[in-house]
Amino acid sequence: MSRTTLIIGNDIKRRLRAPMATILFLIIPLAMTALIGMIFDPGSGGETKLPAIKLLLVDKDKGLAAKFLVGAFDQKEIKDMFQVTLIDEAAGEKLMKKGKASAMLIIPENFSDDLAEQKISTLEVVKNPSEEFLPGVAEEFANTMAVGFSAIVQVFADELKIIKSASKLNLEAISIAELTPFLEMARIKIIALNSYLSPLLLQLKTSTTTKPGKTAKPKGFNIFAYIMPGMLIMFLLFIIEAFMRDIQNERADGKIRRMMFSPLTTRELIAARIFSGWLMGVLICLTAMAVGTLIFSIDWGNSLLVLILVVVSCFWCAAFFAMLNAFFKNKNQAGAFAAPIILVFAAFGGSMLPLEQIPQGMRWLAKFTVNNWFITGSQEIMAGGIPHGSLIVLSVSGLFFAMVAMIALQRRLST
Amino acid sequence: MQQTILEIKNLSKSYGETIALANFSLSLKKGEVLGLLGPNGAGKTTLISILSGTLRDFTGSASFKGQDLFSDRRLKNLIGIVPQEMAFYEDLGALENLMFWGGLYDIPKKELKRRALELLAVVELSARAKEPIKKFSGGMKRRLNIAIGLVHQPELLLLDEPTVGIDVQAKVNILDIIRNIGQQGTSVVFTTHQLSEVEQICSRIAIMDKGVVLAEGTLAELIRIVGEKEIVEVSGEFSADAFSAIIRQSDGNGMEILSVTDNQAHLAFADSERIPAMMQHLFKHHLPISDLKIKSPNLEAVFLKMTGRSLRD
Fold first, then answer.
1. Domains in chain B with CATH codes
2. Does A20 touch chain B if contact means CB atoms closer than 8 Å?
3. CA-based, 20 to 30 A from A126: which of A134, A245, A352, B98?
């Protein structure tokens, strides 16, 4: 057994021998996910203020019913919820691919005519795969509108025909006496409008933007899947930081000095420390994800991609904290600085607040946090994509940190 | 003639303006137990740190069996170090600790296990081999600390104050272990500021202070430095200046002042019959004396003579 594997084995054995801290770090993100999930779950009755949902509206019909539908977004309560942009389909698709909106609602051609003639018409909602929660809200809203519209269209079928034909005539030529029987009929229908209406005349078609040639499976919205990646990466940072702080603790209590009495090199020691921090992080993260699947029914997506993302993210964390410990003078300094750094990462990286809720001017900060890359990476995998960006950024920066840690720690441990 | 195993030449090391070692030179023969005696800050730990390869930026050289100690990492397999601090994993058992620390050296696993079990018997910890160290007493931990330094069967063992902070019984036990190690042919460098320990187990003694060796030899050779003089230790509520002034007024023939500090002084008398007269002189000048001790020539007297201060200072 090499000296490096001996140290790694010893580190893991000691953690497993006294597992309370590790178990706590495993339980806390799960508990936080459960708690926040229950508070924000739409079914729980909790009041939450969502950010305005960016909705692109494509009106390919331009008819009366389409205008009525577009006008519905001008109602005060709905206006607060949606930031609607009327746009043509091609421009809308471009913006969706760039991830500039949460969803796009397409009103098909002949929408008004089809409704007047009691034909089935389909509203299309295109969702942004990098956001899970807000497109879900847009979809639900469109669905509700479709149900409402279907009901109105079925009840007032005759009246709609008259309105349609009347729109082609001179309104002054129609007398009140001619309109009275239809108005009376409409009045009776409004009174009777509590009966069940079926089938729906208006249907909803949902899709998610993907790269050309790929298809994304539409999934139901799971708020826990939205929260857990953020919680997980925040606590992974805490776990790995605690593990890497052993460098400071063992320097202070003389263990590292004693190790250096042996033929062990500082390079072997640092590699062992980074590797054991990384391995412990991977084990805990995968366990937490498995528990998350069992408890919260989270579908993490492609297992191999998830494993790669976890491996890369944990390596980033281990290398980052190894580097920081090379610059901290002692364990007190490490303790004082590490927690604020993790909390800043969590705040700006999307662990505490959804990225959409962070002020626009500060969102660029997220790009410097492992939290952001892990969260967006997880969401991409859940949406059926491959998180190329996250994997590249985390691997490259992780390797850079590991290199700096190796050089700086060698210097610190040799003096 | 015994082979010289360790040769240290002109080692110097300073921390800023503080000199820890100044042209320190020493040699050690195979099977020798060398006591390195010095007060706190004498440079003992700095010397051990340099020899163990954990301290850099020094000048001078050290060779082990004729090879440069600092150029060949494999030589570390032949040197065992017992640091002052008890650096091991308290949540692991004694055997697990020995297997871990021994595993850092180039020893086959089977041989390591055999050696670890053998050492646990030597330090009388076999019965508690699997118990977590955190449940051990201070003395047991000190014994394990020594066992860890010996697990890879070194030819040279460096012990940095291995008896600090333990009771008399545990100390006797540890000194026995060190004596046996020396008798088995391992060369030992043993740093301490306890005179009695050095007297008990060391075949050769080096007195060091402020980074240099002041005197070196066997106990008998060192005592000859102070001669067959009686040492009087005077304690009381007096200042060093007041004591010196009164002594100067006396007939100081046959008396030597070894050290004078506030509240304590050491005087050496070639003729013990002169001691009562000197005491009378001190009392006549109303020097507030609370205690008087008359000692036969010993290592403490040598130390006082060489350093001008007590080891407790």
1. 4-223 (3.40.50.300), 229-296 (3.30.70.250)
2. no
3. A352
